[in-house]
Amino acid sequence: MSISGELFSEERSADVVARSFDGAPDPRLRRIMQSLVQHLHAFVKDVELTEAEWAQAIAFLTETGHRCDDVRQEFVLLSDVLGVSMLVETINHRAAGATESTVLGPFHVVESPRRELGDSVSLAGQGEPCLVTGRVTGPDGEPVGGAAVDVWQADDEGFYDVQRPGVIPEANLRGLFTAAADGTFWFRTVVPRHYPIPDDGPVGRLLRATGRHPYRPAHIHFIVAAEGYQPVTTHLFVAESPYLESDAVFGVKDSLVRQFPVVDDAERAAEVGLPNPFRTVHFEVRLRR
Ligand SMILES: [Fe+2]
Asked: Measured between alpha carbons, how far is 217 from 251 in angstroms, rounded to an integer?
Protein backbone atom coordinates (compact mmCIF):
# COMPACT_ATOMS: atom_id res chain seq x y z
CA MET A 1 0.00 0.00 0.00
CA SER A 2 1.23 3.48 -0.68
CA ILE A 3 0.17 6.73 0.96
CA SER A 4 -0.71 9.58 -1.33
CA GLY A 5 0.80 12.88 -0.26
CA GLU A 6 4.06 13.65 1.48
CA LEU A 7 4.74 12.44 5.01
CA PHE A 8 6.57 14.42 7.68
CA SER A 9 10.38 14.39 7.51
CA GLU A 10 13.10 16.45 9.11
CA GLU A 11 14.19 17.97 5.81
CA ARG A 12 10.74 18.82 4.53
CA SER A 13 8.90 19.42 7.83
CA ALA A 14 8.10 23.09 7.26
CA ASP A 15 6.65 22.54 3.78
CA VAL A 16 4.63 19.53 4.85
CA VAL A 17 3.08 21.32 7.81
CA ALA A 18 2.61 24.59 5.89
CA ARG A 19 0.69 22.71 3.22
CA SER A 20 -1.77 21.48 5.84
CA PHE A 21 -3.06 25.07 5.91
CA ASP A 22 -3.63 25.23 2.15
CA GLY A 23 -7.37 24.90 2.61
CA ALA A 24 -7.75 27.71 5.15
CA PRO A 25 -10.71 29.75 3.87
CA ASP A 26 -9.31 33.09 5.10
CA PRO A 27 -6.30 33.91 2.85
CA ARG A 28 -4.72 36.19 5.43
CA LEU A 29 -4.91 33.53 8.14
CA ARG A 30 -3.47 31.01 5.65
CA ARG A 31 -0.54 33.31 4.87
CA ILE A 32 0.15 34.03 8.54
CA MET A 33 0.06 30.37 9.61
CA GLN A 34 2.19 29.17 6.70
CA SER A 35 4.82 31.85 7.30
CA LEU A 36 4.77 31.17 11.04
CA VAL A 37 5.36 27.47 10.44
CA GLN A 38 8.26 28.17 8.06
CA HIS A 39 10.02 30.50 10.52
CA LEU A 40 9.27 28.37 13.57
CA HIS A 41 10.64 25.22 11.95
CA ALA A 42 13.71 27.09 10.70
CA PHE A 43 14.32 28.32 14.26
CA VAL A 44 13.96 24.86 15.83
CA LYS A 45 16.38 23.45 13.26
CA ASP A 46 18.82 26.34 13.66
CA VAL A 47 19.26 25.80 17.40
CA GLU A 48 18.54 22.03 17.29
CA LEU A 49 16.11 22.46 20.15
CA THR A 50 16.37 19.69 22.77
CA GLU A 51 13.30 18.05 24.30
CA ALA A 52 14.17 19.59 27.67
CA GLU A 53 14.38 23.05 26.13
CA TRP A 54 11.09 22.52 24.33
CA ALA A 55 9.44 21.49 27.63
CA GLN A 56 10.99 24.53 29.33
CA ALA A 57 9.59 26.80 26.61
CA ILE A 58 6.10 25.32 27.06
CA ALA A 59 6.35 25.77 30.84
CA PHE A 60 7.52 29.37 30.33
CA LEU A 61 4.59 30.21 28.06
CA THR A 62 2.17 28.50 30.42
CA GLU A 63 3.44 30.54 33.34
CA THR A 64 3.30 33.69 31.19
CA GLY A 65 -0.40 33.02 30.64
CA HIS A 66 -0.99 32.39 34.32
CA ARG A 67 0.54 35.78 35.16
CA CYS A 68 -2.08 37.64 33.12
CA ASP A 69 -5.10 39.25 34.80
CA ASP A 70 -7.04 42.53 34.73
CA VAL A 71 -4.00 44.66 35.56
CA ARG A 72 -1.07 42.49 34.49
CA GLN A 73 -0.39 41.41 30.91
CA GLU A 74 2.71 39.23 30.90
CA PHE A 75 2.33 38.37 27.19
CA VAL A 76 2.49 42.06 26.28
CA LEU A 77 5.64 42.30 28.41
CA LEU A 78 7.14 39.33 26.59
CA SER A 79 6.32 40.89 23.23
CA ASP A 80 7.81 44.17 24.50
CA VAL A 81 11.17 42.76 25.63
CA LEU A 82 11.50 40.84 22.37
CA GLY A 83 11.00 44.07 20.42
CA VAL A 84 7.91 42.68 18.69
CA SER A 85 5.52 45.28 20.10
CA MET A 86 7.80 48.02 18.84
CA LEU A 87 8.16 46.38 15.42
CA VAL A 88 4.41 45.97 14.95
CA GLU A 89 3.88 49.56 16.06
CA THR A 90 6.56 50.87 13.70
CA ILE A 91 5.39 48.87 10.66
CA ASN A 92 1.81 50.01 11.17
CA HIS A 93 2.55 53.68 11.81
CA ARG A 94 5.27 54.79 9.42
CA ALA A 95 5.22 58.41 10.47
CA ALA A 96 6.34 60.43 7.40
CA GLY A 97 6.29 63.86 8.99
CA ALA A 98 3.76 63.01 11.66
CA THR A 99 4.50 62.46 15.35
CA GLU A 100 6.26 59.12 15.78
CA SER A 101 4.54 56.36 17.68
CA THR A 102 5.88 54.00 20.30
CA VAL A 103 4.67 51.09 22.42
CA LEU A 104 1.39 51.20 24.30
CA GLY A 105 2.98 49.38 27.22
CA PRO A 106 1.22 47.29 29.85
CA PHE A 107 -0.19 50.05 32.06
CA HIS A 108 -3.04 51.46 29.98
CA VAL A 109 -5.30 49.05 31.82
CA VAL A 110 -7.89 51.41 33.29
CA GLU A 111 -9.88 54.11 31.58
CA SER A 112 -8.41 57.56 32.13
CA PRO A 113 -10.82 59.89 33.95
CA ARG A 114 -12.04 62.91 31.99
CA ARG A 115 -10.34 66.08 33.16
CA GLU A 116 -10.52 69.77 32.25
CA LEU A 117 -7.62 71.55 30.59
CA GLY A 118 -5.29 72.82 33.29
CA ASP A 119 -6.31 70.15 35.82
CA SER A 120 -3.65 68.32 37.78
CA VAL A 121 -3.38 64.56 37.25
CA SER A 122 -1.25 64.28 40.38
CA LEU A 123 -3.70 63.14 43.06
CA ALA A 124 -0.96 61.95 45.39
CA GLY A 125 0.66 65.40 45.34
CA GLN A 126 4.24 64.15 45.59
CA GLY A 127 7.02 64.74 43.09
CA GLU A 128 8.52 67.59 41.13
CA PRO A 129 5.66 69.74 39.75
CA CYS A 130 5.52 70.00 35.99
CA LEU A 131 3.42 71.89 33.47
CA VAL A 132 2.75 70.02 30.21
CA THR A 133 1.65 72.14 27.27
CA GLY A 134 1.02 71.01 23.74
CA ARG A 135 -0.79 71.50 20.49
CA VAL A 136 -2.43 69.05 18.12
CA THR A 137 -2.19 69.77 14.41
CA GLY A 138 -2.85 67.94 11.16
CA PRO A 139 -0.61 67.34 8.14
CA ASP A 140 -0.99 70.90 6.82
CA GLY A 141 -0.42 72.43 10.21
CA GLU A 142 -4.12 72.99 10.73
CA PRO A 143 -5.17 72.98 14.41
CA VAL A 144 -7.13 69.91 15.48
CA GLY A 145 -9.55 71.36 18.00
CA GLY A 146 -11.37 68.88 20.23
CA ALA A 147 -8.73 66.16 19.88
CA ALA A 148 -8.78 63.62 22.70
CA VAL A 149 -5.49 63.61 24.62
CA ASP A 150 -5.20 60.54 26.86
CA VAL A 151 -2.29 60.70 29.28
CA TRP A 152 -0.81 58.29 31.82
CA GLN A 153 2.53 58.05 33.56
CA ALA A 154 4.51 56.67 36.48
CA ASP A 155 5.06 58.77 39.61
CA ASP A 156 8.28 60.20 41.03
CA GLU A 157 9.16 56.75 42.38
CA GLY A 158 8.47 54.98 39.10
CA PHE A 159 5.10 53.43 40.00
CA TYR A 160 1.76 53.46 38.20
CA ASP A 161 -1.40 53.66 40.34
CA VAL A 162 -2.40 50.07 39.51
CA GLN A 163 0.88 48.73 40.85
CA ARG A 164 0.28 49.97 44.38
CA PRO A 165 -3.47 49.83 45.04
CA GLY A 166 -4.34 51.28 48.42
CA VAL A 167 -1.05 53.21 48.51
CA ILE A 168 -1.38 55.32 45.35
CA PRO A 169 -4.85 56.88 44.79
CA GLU A 170 -6.84 55.32 41.94
CA ALA A 171 -6.39 57.16 38.61
CA ASN A 172 -3.32 58.99 39.91
CA LEU A 173 -1.37 60.43 36.98
CA ARG A 174 -4.04 59.55 34.42
CA GLY A 175 -6.27 61.93 32.53
CA LEU A 176 -8.33 62.26 29.37
CA PHE A 177 -8.24 65.84 28.09
CA THR A 178 -9.99 67.55 25.19
CA ALA A 179 -7.84 69.96 23.20
CA ALA A 180 -9.14 73.53 22.87
CA ALA A 181 -10.50 74.85 19.54
CA ASP A 182 -6.99 75.95 18.53
CA GLY A 183 -5.62 72.45 19.20
CA THR A 184 -3.79 73.40 22.38
CA PHE A 185 -3.85 71.40 25.60
CA TRP A 186 -2.21 71.80 28.99
CA PHE A 187 -2.26 70.06 32.34
CA ARG A 188 -0.32 69.84 35.56
CA THR A 189 1.56 66.75 36.65
CA VAL A 190 4.88 65.68 38.20
CA VAL A 191 8.09 64.63 36.47
CA PRO A 192 7.98 60.83 36.06
CA ARG A 193 10.85 58.57 37.11
CA HIS A 194 12.40 55.69 35.20
CA TYR A 195 11.08 52.32 36.34
CA PRO A 196 11.54 48.59 35.92
CA ILE A 197 8.89 46.74 33.95
CA PRO A 198 7.22 44.21 36.27
CA ASP A 199 10.04 41.72 36.70
CA ASP A 200 8.67 39.34 39.33
CA GLY A 201 7.28 36.98 36.68
CA PRO A 202 8.62 34.75 33.91
CA VAL A 203 9.64 37.72 31.72
CA GLY A 204 11.72 39.16 34.58
CA ARG A 205 13.37 35.76 35.01
CA LEU A 206 14.17 35.71 31.30
CA LEU A 207 15.80 39.15 31.57
CA ARG A 208 17.92 38.08 34.56
CA ALA A 209 18.96 34.81 32.92
CA THR A 210 20.17 36.75 29.90
CA GLY A 211 21.93 39.55 31.78
CA ARG A 212 19.45 42.25 30.72
CA HIS A 213 18.10 45.00 33.00
CA PRO A 214 14.34 45.62 33.23
CA TYR A 215 14.38 49.44 33.15
CA ARG A 216 12.51 51.93 30.99
CA PRO A 217 13.67 55.55 30.81
CA ALA A 218 11.27 58.12 32.35
CA HIS A 219 8.36 58.98 30.08
CA ILE A 220 4.78 60.25 29.82
CA HIS A 221 2.36 58.18 27.72
CA PHE A 222 -0.02 59.78 25.23
CA ILE A 223 -2.76 58.59 22.92
CA VAL A 224 -3.96 61.48 20.78
CA ALA A 225 -7.05 60.88 18.64
CA ALA A 226 -9.44 63.00 16.59
CA GLU A 227 -12.13 62.29 14.05
CA GLY A 228 -10.80 62.29 10.50
CA TYR A 229 -7.22 61.60 11.67
CA GLN A 230 -5.22 58.51 12.57
CA PRO A 231 -4.65 58.23 16.31
CA VAL A 232 -1.08 58.17 17.61
CA THR A 233 0.11 56.15 20.61
CA THR A 234 3.36 57.60 21.85
CA HIS A 235 5.52 58.84 24.76
CA LEU A 236 7.54 61.89 25.70
CA PHE A 237 10.87 60.82 27.19
CA VAL A 238 12.71 62.87 29.80
CA ALA A 239 16.08 63.82 28.29
CA GLU A 240 17.96 63.54 31.60
CA SER A 241 16.69 60.04 32.35
CA PRO A 242 18.98 57.03 32.62
CA TYR A 243 18.32 54.09 30.27
CA LEU A 244 17.46 56.22 27.20
CA GLU A 245 20.00 54.14 25.26
CA SER A 246 18.90 50.77 26.65
CA ASP A 247 15.12 50.85 27.10
CA ALA A 248 14.09 47.29 28.03
CA VAL A 249 11.26 47.46 25.48
CA PHE A 250 13.11 49.40 22.72
CA GLY A 251 10.55 52.22 22.75
CA VAL A 252 12.85 55.26 22.48
CA LYS A 253 12.85 57.36 19.32
CA ASP A 254 15.01 60.47 19.00
CA SER A 255 12.08 62.69 18.05
CA LEU A 256 10.28 61.84 21.30
CA VAL A 257 13.01 62.91 23.75
CA ARG A 258 12.41 66.28 25.42
CA GLN A 259 14.18 68.54 27.87
CA PHE A 260 12.00 69.36 30.89
CA PRO A 261 13.51 72.78 31.77
CA VAL A 262 13.02 74.42 35.17
CA VAL A 263 10.96 77.62 35.20
CA ASP A 264 11.72 79.95 38.11
CA ASP A 265 8.97 82.57 37.74
CA ALA A 266 6.64 83.14 40.70
CA GLU A 267 4.07 85.01 38.59
CA ARG A 268 3.84 82.27 35.98
CA ALA A 269 3.73 79.62 38.72
CA ALA A 270 0.75 81.36 40.34
CA GLU A 271 -0.93 81.69 36.95
CA VAL A 272 -0.74 77.95 36.24
CA GLY A 273 -1.35 76.88 39.83
CA LEU A 274 2.02 75.31 40.57
CA PRO A 275 4.59 75.99 43.29
CA ASN A 276 7.64 77.94 42.13
CA PRO A 277 9.98 76.76 40.63
CA PHE A 278 8.45 74.11 38.39
CA ARG A 279 9.41 72.05 35.34
CA THR A 280 7.88 72.34 31.87
CA VAL A 281 7.66 70.40 28.68
CA HIS A 282 5.97 71.15 25.36
CA PHE A 283 4.63 68.61 22.88
CA GLU A 284 3.65 69.48 19.30
CA VAL A 285 1.57 66.54 18.11
CA ARG A 286 1.17 66.16 14.36
CA LEU A 287 -1.53 63.68 13.29
CA ARG A 288 -1.92 61.94 9.94
CA ARG A 289 -5.23 61.97 8.07
FE1 LIG B 1 5.21 53.53 30.92
From this structure: 9
